[in-house]
Amino acid sequence: MSDLFALYALRLLHIVVGVFWVGSVVFMAAFLSPSVRAAGPAGGAVLQQLMGVRRLPFWLMGAMALTLLSGIGLYWHDSAGFQSAWLASGAGRVFGLGGVVAIAASILGMAINMPTGRRLAELAGRLQSAGRPPTPDEQATLAALQARLGRAGLVVAFLLLTATMLMAVARYVP
C-alpha cells in the first residue's frame, strides 16, 4: 500500500508542479512579456519585482527540476527499470519523446531565458533607482533583451505545451 501511495504522490507532484511550470511559462511568453515590452521603461519595474523580489526564476527552476525528476521517476517505474520492451512500446516512445522535449525546453530556458531575464531585470533596476529615462543605448539594449526573451520564451512555451500534449496522450498510444 505504501508503494501505491508513493506512486500516487509522485504522479501528483509531477502533474501539479508541471502545471505550475508550463502555465507560468506560457503566461509569461503569451501575455507578460509582450505587455512588459509594450509598457516600455515602466515595464522594467514589474520585471524587477518578479525577478528580484518575488524570485520567479527560483520558483520556475524548482518547478522544472521537480517536474523533470518526478517524470523520470514515473518513467522508471512504468518501464520496470527502463526495460527495453516497454521503452519500445507506443506509450514508452511517446512518454520518452515528451520527456526529451521537456528537457530541451529546460535547457533552452536555462541557457537563454534565465540569463536574459536577469540582465533585463538588472538594467531595469539600475534605471529605476537612477530615476531617469533610459539613454538611447540603454533603450536599444532593453529592446534587444526583451525581443530575445520574447522569442525564446515562445519557443520554450511551445516545447512545453508539446511535451504536455505528448504526456497527455501517451497512455493511449498502442
Q: Count of DSSP helices?
A: 6
What's the helical proportion of residues? Answer: over 70%
**CATH C-level category:** Mainly Alpha
In CATH, the architecture is Up-down Bundle
Describe the structure.
The chain has one domain: Up-down Bundle (Four Helix Bundle (Hemerythrin (Met), subunit A)), CATH 1.20.120. The protein has helices at residues 2-39, 43-53, 56-78, 84-87, 90-130, 136-170. It has 174 residues and is an all-alpha fold. The protein is elongated and about 60 Å long. Helix 1 runs antiparallel to helix 3 and helix 2 (43-53) crosses helix 5 (90-130). The two termini are 29 Å apart. It contains six helices and no strands. The mean pLDDT is 91.
Task: Name the features.
single chain; 174 residues; mainly alpha; Four Helix Bundle (Hemerythrin (Met), subunit A); 87% helix
Layout of helices and strands, plus pairs?
Blueprint: H1 2-39, H2 43-53, H3 56-78, H4 84-87, H5 90-130, H6 136-170
